[in-house]
Amino acid sequence: MIITCGKCKTKYRVDDNAIPKDEFKVRCTKCSHGFLVKKPSSTSEVPPYIKRKAETVATKYKDNPNCKVITICNQKGGVAKTTTCLNLATSLAQMNKRVLVVDFDIQSNLTLLLGHKDARSFFDVVDSESNELTKFIIKTKHNLSLLPSNSKMALLSKTHMGQDNFEYMLRDKLLQVKQDYDYILIDTPPSGDFYTLNALLASTSAIIPAPCEYLSMNGINHIEGMIKVIQNKINHFIDMFVLITKLDKNNTVSQVVLEKIKYKYGSKVLHTMINYDQKIQESEIVQTPAIIYDSESQAARQYQQLAKEVNDKLFPAELNEKTGSYL
Ligand SMILES: Nc1ncnc2c1ncn2[C@@H]1O[C@H](COP(=O)(O)OP(=O)(O)O)[C@@H](O)[C@H]1O
Ligand SMILES: [Mg+2]
C-alpha cells in the first residue's frame, strides 16, 4: 500500500505482507511527523477492472512483491536509457542481486551490447505455443539474464494493439519469472506508445534518464504525464525518478537546465548524477558495460553509486530496520 505523510506529503510504498496489524503507527523519515495508518481491506484500493485482471493471472503464478520492476524510459532518443539499463543492471548484479534485463526496444541495442544477435524476443514468446518465458531468457554475461529483442518486435504493436488486455502483455508474462529475480529492468524505445505503456504497467518504478539539455524537460514531462494518467485512470502507482545523465559541469547551459529540472522535480531527481564520460562510448565498441570496461572510471563509480541509491530507495523496509525510525 502507499502511505502519504500528512505533513510533508512524502509517499512511502509499504509491502502489505510486512504490515503487522490493521492499524499501525509510523514516523515519516523526512519530517519526523508521526501518524496513524489504517491498513486497507485487500480489495478497497483496486478497481474491479484491475482486480479481474489480477485474478486471471494470479490463479497460475504467484506475484513476488520483492521483485522490483523498473522501466527505463524517455520519449527522447540518445538520453542514455540503454546505457543506464546496462550499467545499473550490471552494478546490481555485482551487489549479488538476481537481475533480469528486458530489451523492449525494436532497435535491440541492449541485446547487441550484451553480445547477442538474432536471439528470440518477446514477440517470439507471445507467438510461441508454449508461452513459457523462461525458455526465451538467456543467461548472459556479467551475471545477468536477458530477454532479448529482435527486429520482429516491430510487429508486436501491429499484431496486438487494441486486443483485449494488450497493455498487460508484458506484466502477465513477467509474472511467470518474478520469483526468480530481485530486479527486472526494462529498456524501452524513444516513444510513449504501446511498448512504453506495456513496460510501465509491468513496473512499480520508472527511471527517466535526462541529459541537461533544453529539450530534456519536454521528455520528462511527457513520461510524467503518462505515469499520472496510469495512476489516475487505472490506479497503478509508479514511483518516478529522474536521473541526470551526460552531465557536463563546465557547460553553462547544463547548469541552467539542471537547476530547472531540480526545481520542477525536487525529490524525484536522484542524488546520483552521471557525468559525461567518454569511457561509456569506448566501452560500447568492445560490447562491455562501462562499469566493467574501466572499473576506475567516473562512469563506473557513478553507476555503482546509483545502484546503491536505487536499492535503498526501493527497499525502504531494509532501510527502516537499520534506522529503527519507521514502522
Ligand atoms: N555518461 C555518458 N557520457 C558520454 N556518452 C554517453 C553517456 N551516456 C550515454 N552516452 C552515449 O550516448 C549515446 C546514446 O546512449 P543510449 O544509452 O543508447 O541512449 P538511448 O537508449 O536513450 O537512446 C551512446 O552513444 C552512448 O555511448
Ligand atoms: Mg536505447
Q: Compounds present?
A: adenosine-5'-diphosphate, magnesium ion
SSE run:
EEEEHEHEHHEEHHEHEHEHHHHH
Task: Find the CATH superfamily of the largest domain.
Answer: P-loop containing nucleotide triphosphate hydrolases
Fraction of residues in β-strands: 15-25%
Helix count? 13
Q: What fraction, in percent, of the residue positions are helical?
A: 25-40%
In CATH, what is the class of the largest domain?
Alpha Beta
Mean pLDDT: 88
Structure description:
By secondary structure, the chain is of the alpha/beta class. The chain folds into 2 domains: 45 residues, no CATH class; 270 residues, P-loop containing nucleotide triphosphate hydrolases (Rossmann fold). The chain is 39% helix and 16% strand. The chain contains 13 helices and 11 strands. The strands form 3 sheets. Strands 7-8-6-9-5-10-11 form a 7-stranded mixed β-sheet, sandwiched between helices. A two-stranded antiparallel ribbon has the order 1-2. It has a two-stranded antiparallel sheet with strand order 3-4. Strand 3 and strand 4 form a beta hairpin. The longest helix has 19 residues. It is globular, with a radius of gyration of 20 Å. The protein starts with a strand and ends with a helix. About 3% of the residues have low confidence. Magnesium ion (MG) binds next to helix 2.
